[in-house]
Amino acid sequence: MTVEEKMFWLQVVHIVVTFGIGIYVWATGRHRVTNERISDLEEAVDHRLDTHSERLVRLETQIKAAPTHHDLGALYAKQNETSRAVSQLVGEVKGMGETLRLILNRIAEKGMK
């Protein structure tokens, strides 16, 4: 093998190695960018999960303070009781009004004697 042949093969090896290094650098750069994007997505998802977690805690706290079915049932019973009492009072006031009207008619007809 002559010096020129050795130089030729050395250049071929050099080109192949350089090409291989170029592919390696491209692939690692591509993976680095992909890994950065994945890390950014992980951070965004973590932030969203934290936000949702805080919202859930607030909702659970509000739900604990909300009235139960039993509480609403008691409230409706009390409301119905009040409604019955008001209806009774309305009836009594109407009766008193009718009585007063009869008294006034009697006074108007016969005078205050």
Structural summary, described in words:
It is built from 2 helices and no strands. It has helices spanning 3-65, 69-110.
Structural class: mainly alpha
Domain tally: 2
Mean pLDDT comes to 91
Low-confidence stretches: none
Radius of gyration: 47 Å
Strand percentage, roughly? under 5%
Basic shape: rod-shaped
**What oligomeric state is this?**
single chain
Compute the number of helices. 2
Tell me the series of helices and strands, N- to C-terminal.
Answer: HH
Q: End-to-end distance, in Å?
A: 156 Å
Helix content: over 70%
Organism: Pseudazoarcus pumilus
Protein name: DUF2730 domain-containing protein
Keywords: Membrane, Transmembrane, Transmembrane helix
Transmembrane segments: 6-27
Write the topology of this structure.
Layout (H helix, E strand, L loop, with lengths): L2 H63 L3 H42 L3
Main attributes?
mainly alpha; 113 residues; 2 domains; 2 helices; single chain; membrane
